[in-house]
Write a structure and sequence with these properties.
Length: 260
C-alpha cells in the first residue's frame, strides 16, 4: 500500500468521523432545545405548592365605577384542618385607581391604602378548628373595610317558603352565615386578594340582595343573602383602629390595658 492510499483512507475516515460528530451535535442541539422549551413552560406554570412550598393565589376585587359611599359584600370559605392555617390578605396601594378619580378630587393620588391580613381555618359549620383572626389592619387616607366576620354578616331568607326557616328564624333577621366568612369593602375602588387557598373570593357589585348559600332538609330551609350598605349604616359597625403590629386587634379586645 502506497503512502498516497494510506493518506486517502485517513482523510476518508476523518471525514466520516466529522460527519458523525456533526450528526450527534445536531441531535444534542435538538434535545437541548426541547429541554429548554419544557423548562420554560414549567417555569411559567409552576407554583410554590408544586415544589413543596406554600401555595399563593391572587385575584382582583373590582368595585370601580360604583359609589364610594357604599360598602359592598365580599365573602370566602377557608379550608379546614387539612390545610392547617389558611391566610388571606386584602390590600391596595394608596394611589391605586387614582386615574379613575373615584372621589372627584382632581385625580389626587392619595386615594386609599389598605393592608388587611387575616388567618383562619374552616367555617362556622365545619367540625375543625374554626376561627378567623385579623392579624393586621391598616387603612390610610380613607376607610376601605368594615365588618370582618368569621360568619359573614347576612340576612335570613326562605328558599321556597314551603318549609319552616331553620331554627325558626325570621325572614329579614341579620345574622352571621354559618357557611361563609367575609367583610364589606368600599365601592369605587379595586382590591388585590392574596391567599393560600385555591377557592375564589366572591363579591357582589349589585345593589340588590344576592345569595351566599342555602340549606334545605326535609324539615327546614334557609337562604343567607347579602346586600351593600351605605357608609353611615349602623349595620357596618365602627371604624377599625389602626393595628399594624401582628395580633394587636384581637389582643386589645382580650386584655385590658394596665394603668401607669
Amino acid at each position: 500500500m502506497g503512502i498516497e492510499t494510506t493518506i486517502t483512507k485517513v482523510v476518508d475516515a476523518c471525514e466520516k468521523l466529522t460527519q458523525t460528530v456533526t450528526d450527534q451535535i445536531g441531535k444534542i442541539d435538538a434535545r437541548m432545545d426541547a429541554a429548554l422549551g419544557q423548562f420554560t413552560a414549567w417555569r411559567g406554570a409552576v407554583q410554590a405548592k408544586d415544589i413543596n412550598g406554600r401555595a399563593s393565589y391572587s385575584q382582583i376585587i373590582d368595585l370601580t365605577g360604583l359609589s364610594t359611599n357604599i360598602f359592598y359584600p365580599v365573602w370566602w370559605r377557608m379550608p379546614g384542618n387539612e390545610q392547617g392555617i389558611s391566610e388571606i390578605l386584602i390590600s391596595r396601594n394608596y394611589s391605586l385607581d387614582s386615574e379613575k378619580n373615584p372621589f372627584n378630587n382632581n385625580f389626587e393620588v392619595h386615594v386609599a391604602g389598605l393592608n388587611l391580613q387575616m388567618e383562619g381555618c374552616g367555617i362556622p359549620w365545619n367540625g375543625d378548628a374554626n376561627f378567623l383572626a385579623v392579624k393586621r389592619v391598616s387603612q390610610t387616607y380613607r376607610e376601605t373595610v368594615r365588618r370582618v366576620e368569621f360568619g359573614m354578616l347576612s340576612y335570613v331568607r326562605p328558599v321556597t317558603g314551603v318549609k319552616p326557616i331553620y331554627l325558626n328564624q325570621v325572614s329579614g333577621a341579620l345574622v352571621n352565615s354559618p357557611q361563609e366568612s367575609g367583610c364589606y369593602l368600599r365601592g369605587g375602588l379595586s382590591y388585590i386578594i392574596t391567599k393560600s387557598f385555591e377557592a375564589p373570593v366572591k363579591y357582589s357589585r349589585s345593589d340588590a340582595e344576592v345569595e351566599l348559600s342555602q340549606a334545605v332538609t326535609s324539615e327546614y330551609e334557609i337562604s343567607w343573602k347579602v346586600k351593600p350598605f351605605a357608609v353611615t349604616a349602623p349595620e357596618l359597625g365602627t371604624t377599625y383602629p389602626e393595628n399594624r403590629m401582628a395580633y394587636t386587634f384581637d389582643n386589645d379586645k382580650r386584655y385590658a390595658a394596665k394603668g401607669v
